[in-house]
Automatic annotation (TrEMBL), chains A, B:
Taxonomic source organism: Iodobacter arcticus
Alphabetized PROSITE patterns for the sequence: ACT, ASPARTOKINASE
Entry's Gene Ontology molecular function annotations: aspartate kinase activity
Keyword field: Amino-acid biosynthesis, ATP-binding, Kinase, Lysine biosynthesis, Nucleotide-binding, Transferase
Residues covered by the ACT domain: 266-337, 346-408
Enzyme Commission identifier(s): 2.7.2.4
Entry's family note: Belongs to the aspartokinase family.
Known pathway: Amino-acid biosynthesis; L-lysine biosynthesis via DAP pathway; (S)-tetrahydrodipicolinate from L-aspartate: step 1/4; Amino-acid biosynthesis; L-threonine biosynthesis; L-threonine from L-aspartate: step 1/5; Amino-acid biosynthesis; L-methionine biosynthesis via de novo pathway; L-homoserine from L-aspartate: step 1/3
SUPFAM superfamilies on file: ACT-like, Carbamate kinase-like
Reaction catalyzed: L-aspartate + ATP = 4-phospho-L-aspartate + ADP
Protein name: Aspartokinase
């Protein structure tokens, strides 16, 4: 008998029929004698619908009130799943993030979990109940509703597993594991039986939608055994996220290709080419709680230079407003944004021991006439920003170039 | 400068455009120097959509989980209205029932308000903010989400007015006041400038959708000045609910005609005609927290009798299940239900001083060939149950028979 936390994503609970299927799967594990805690997302499409509604009122929705609105999506799902379990004779109880309670900081729309009370859950489990928790949400110390940002339900699942010291955290999704890349873009993509934690972290942070970055970080930090599985298949071991990269006998150079349409590029043109300018530009952006990803600074000419960086597409308007407020201080000639970009990344721990990976990547893209706008690298990944229209082409040719199409 | 509680119903907040209109109206009152607390319903249609979703999972939804689900409707509206106010430069903050907090008992789907904390609201008002509260919902002492039942947002509005000792509680709706009957059924229906509290209570409890019964009771108990207004008209005094029936110079015999399609009839056939049988039948129904409205017991024959009563249509399935469970104890030959009925009621404080009201009602219906299935009376109302198909006809002929068509 184990304590298992299962997380079901939006597609897995996208209709009442699918919610009933989830209930049957949960009941099966329960019948095997396991204690089950379930974290759920909003039904697919709901969160976007709620955000669209909010934007009909405010182009840049007030973050506190946006959280009040979007958190209702998961609240509906927890009630429906609890009912579906009761309907098949399994006792269950639902909790919102605030009811658990999942305490977060006050950074609305991107809050971080600080603490989870396990008292109520433990006594429900002891009473034989399945505990269902709304993913993606929490409350701050003042009782304001917060959300964890896109994909935050994964983080909720992992954080619950960590708080409860669960034996395994199972992430059920609409795919049966982690693939070399998104099979909707490259049909030849292959499922990985294992992936190292580091690789998964890069894949997640680079836009592979299978797991949210923070959830992988969380799992690493608290040593949570994490498995990605399909909620649409009865069988299957999914992909296990391994902690020991050495457990893999043969490392491929590249394990996967991630991509991301969710960033936008901001260009700050004609700023003085002097020390401290990066801080002057990025300081106000960070103060506005906007994440900056890639950064490049051009070689200066005539004492001025151009500075570019990427931010989440959603934050583009706000970031530009912040910069325009600081425009005279940073003496920028012009500030503009481009949301027609995408980021394509190759990831693999094998990169450490192989040379020429970058040149293979750049040559492959050049042969297709794809211009690289920005580059960023880490020990096990290389990311490039290209025009959004080249996304599918870039991923496809890189997948082939790094031998990921081949059957292993 | 006054403290005004305004309540906006589902139609008044049915679209984001309408929510913006509500914001402008609230801003106008605020600009006049008043402190404003707003209670809102779910956007029209949302609650029914959520209930339908729940019923796809469970024919008789688990009450606790149903409350978790349906309470999200109002939660979306409070966020949207807070945004709409901020968008036009009025500071505002939203609260769910649990956040306020509005403490209720634990009778899920029909909870009663026990206490409202006014601390947070008072300090927000002192800080110049408009306070927006989700109608229809609260939390019990254990922190479970509860709802107040259909139309419960009116009760929230009145209860907030009572807790805050507000100067007036304004109920904004899609009609511009209380009418002699529903104008959609009888186009000749007239708006009343005042109606006594007692009449309003009967109208509400009998199915006039303008105000929920409990909200009128609440207003009476705490002496809350209540006014019904249209959210779609800029001007208009609406209908004021008066406490002194004597303030009316000339009382019409009948003030209004209410009707209700929301009840179903249960027949318990062939039970022993002995004392205590009514309690044996209705006891289990009351224990299941199902409201019983009209009750009739036929004259017994051969030592057995038939017993009929009405329950909310939503509770029909559950009530029959409860009775079937007790069938052997109550020795009933048969138990069946009929949900194709409606209740039509005439209401008026003038009834006290006029004779022949009942006979006028029964003769009018008989002349149209409408069979009366059940009758119930109080000091100021007479209700009859008839076949649902006769509803419009019955209301129309009674409206005319009691002189309500005439211009006063």
């Amino acid at each position: 008998m184990a304590l298992i936390v299962q997380k079901y994503g939006g597609t897995s609970v996208g209709t009442t029929e699918r919610i009933k299927n989830v209930a049957r799967r949960v009941a099966k594990f329960k019948a095997e004698g396991h204690d089950i805690v379930v974290a759920v997302s909003a039904m697919s499409g709901e969160t976007n619908k709620l955000i669209a509604l909010a934007k009909e009122i405010q182009a840049n929705p007030d973050p506190r009130e946006l959280d009040v609105i979007v958190s209702t999506g998961e609240q509906v799902t927890i009630g429906l799943l609890a009912m579906a379990l009761k309907e098949i004779g399994v006792d269950a109880v639902s909790y919102t993030g605030g009811q658990v309670k999942i305490l977060t900081d006050s950074a609305h729309t991107k809050a971080r979990i600080q603490h989870i009370d396990d008292g109520a859950m433990r006594s429900d489990l002891a009473a034989g109940k399945v505990v269902i928790v709304a993913g993606f949400q929490g409350v701050d110390a003042e009782g304001n509703i917060t959300t964890l940002g896109r994909g935050g339900s994964d983080t909720t699942g992992v954080a619950l597993a960590a708080a409860l010291k669960a034996d395994e955290c199972q992430i059920y999704t609409d795919v049966d594991g982690v693939y070399t890349t998104d099979p909707r873009v490259v049909p030849e993509a292959r499922k990985l039986t294992t992936i190292t934690f580091e690789e998964m972290l890069e894949m997640a942070s680079l836009g592979s939608k299978v797991l949210q970055t923070r959830s992988v970080e969380f799992a690493g930090k608290y040593n949570v055994k994490l498995r990605v599985l399909s909620s649409f298949q009865e069988e299957g071991e999914g992909t296990l996220i391994t902690f020991e990269e050495d457990s893999k006998m043969e490392k491929p150079v590249i394990s996967g290709i991630a991509f991301n349409r969710d960033e936008a590029r901001i260009n700050v043109i004609g700023v003085p080419d002097k020390p401290g300018i990066a801080y002057q530009i990025l300081g106000p952006v960070a103060d506005a709680n906007i994440d900056v990803d890639m950064i490049i600074q051009n070689v200066g000419q005539d004492g001025t230079t151009d500075f570019s960086f990427t931010v989440p597409k959603n934050d583009l308007g706000r970031a530009i407003k912040v910069l325009e407020g600081a425009q005279s201080q940073i003496s920028a000639r012009q500030i503009n944004g481009d949301d027609k970009i995408c980021k394509v990344s190759i990831v693999g721990v094998g990169m450490r021991s192989h040379v020429g990976v970058a040149s293979t990547m750049f040559r492959t893209l050049a042969e297709e006439g794809i211009n690289i706008q920005m580059i960023s690298t880490s020990e096990i990944k290389i990311s490039v920003v290209v025009d959004e229209k080249y996304l599918e082409l870039a991923v496809r040719v890189l997948h082939k170039a790094f031998g990921l199409d081949a059957i292993q």
